[in-house]
Amino acid sequence: MTRVTSSVLLVLWAGVLVSCNTVGSEKQQIQEYYNLDSLIRRQIIKLTQKNARLYKKATVNGNTEEKHMQFDSAGWARELALFREADINKPAFSKAYSVKKAEKDIHSNLLFDMFIPINDEKLRIKAIRVYYLNEINSLRKIEIVKEEKNELFYSSLNMAMYFDESNKEVVLHSFLIKGKQKLRLKDTVNYTIEALIIYP
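and the corresponding structure tokens:
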């Protein structure tokens, strides 16, 4: 395993990836789109209260490592930070995304709401799709596409969170992150994070 690959794996285990977004506070939020920030805050509370564990497999350019981990609330917040940072309910994004609701998914019996930039060039979050069974409270999956690029750097992320219902409440079941990073004059780094939540 190369030093670069080893370093990237260490970063993936730490739950930290390159990101220029910051999570806004409640006062900085709007209620125009699906509220990812609120959803993930609730899930962090549930994961902590239930003493959930995480099975995580990280693959970087074909090199794979697996671990079982357990976190406090701060640890779960780090693990889910990329999803929380994708929340677009911020004043700067007001009217910046088109909204389609209750679209039928051709691959399942689910409906989905979709949020796509009206001006694709300037926004890093390229798409959010929220899948649910009959109504939004019966959440099943969230898909997020993110892309950043400039003359020196390119990064793309395809992320998904999967949910089940337990005792009439929605709980996080697993998540998947597939990414690519390219620095000028450096090799491309392709990585995948597969994570499964294990409840006692």
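(Above: one complete record from the training split.) Residues 3-17+30-198 form one domain.
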